[in-house]
Amino acid sequence: xxxxxxxxxxxxxxxxxxxxxxxxxxxxxxxxxxxxxxxxxxxxxxxxxxxxxxxxxxxxxxxxxxxxxxxxxxxxxxxxxxxxxxxxxxxxxxxxxxxxxxxxxxxxxxxxxxxxxxxxxxxxxxxxxxxxxxxxxxxxxxxxxxxxxxxxxxxxxxxxxxxxxxxxxxxxxxxxxxxxxxxxxxxxxxxxxxxxxxxxxxxxxxxxxxxxxxxxxxxxxxxxxxxxxxxxxxxxxxxxxxxxxxxxxxxxxxxxxxxxxxxxxxxxxxxxxxxxxxxxxxxxxxxxxxxxxxxxxxxxxxxxxxxxxxxxxxxxxxxxxxxxxxxxxxx
Length: 331
Known about the structure:
By secondary structure, the protein is mostly helical. 76% of the residues lie in helices and 0% in strands. The complex is composed of two ATP-binding proteins (BtuD), two transmembrane proteins (BtuC) and a solute-binding protein (BtuF). It is found in: Cell membrane.
């Protein structure tokens, strides 16, 4: 089989995967809107109460899960290229922890400022600081996979310590809010909170369009410069985009882990590492994964529901352990 046929076969495989994921995503979305404590029929007219249930509760929650899933998956794929490490992920390397610490500070010390915009600003600032710290340490100290993960664990411990202090000093209302953010959930998301989605969606689209630039970065800084890439400017833009996506995701649904790790890695494993094709599929697959996980969270318990973060951690942790074992030689 010559090169042209190999390239054509690869393109067809990406296209088939795209069509399959789009079909699965649309099917899961329809199922998501129909099932729950009150099951709805797609073949009969809905009452005003059922219409209100879908429009005010299920649809905003569905969109939140899709936006968060796409944001975290694309942010994870970009962070892996930026750090040159396939195990990099916003939750694993502490970026989500930075966003949560900033939000905890806002909840405790500036309760009068609580709003989606304030949450977004605080979460983005925290995520940006932690992302900058990671990038600087990874570049200056030439961290291996093991050391980078240890730094991420250390940052996670640091953010966990701050949150523990917040638990100790918070009142009952603050404690409930903190538990909500830490466990991760899109229950109760309103249309007003989707102001955050208006920020996240354009950033996701912009990052998806940067696939060609990321492919050049994967060749190394020297080759990327020869191909006309302004390394310094591109890196800072990518850092800001990752911080915006992680901040918006944490502000909208709390700390939700492993989406940015599992989705890009499995896609690279099965379809290849071409970022211009990988990033749009990562967004689609991330949205599919989180909508499916939230559907499981809603239906798993008859009288209540599981936190979304618990479901994603249960699904992602075994895959993360497998990835660590698989990559032990590079550590």
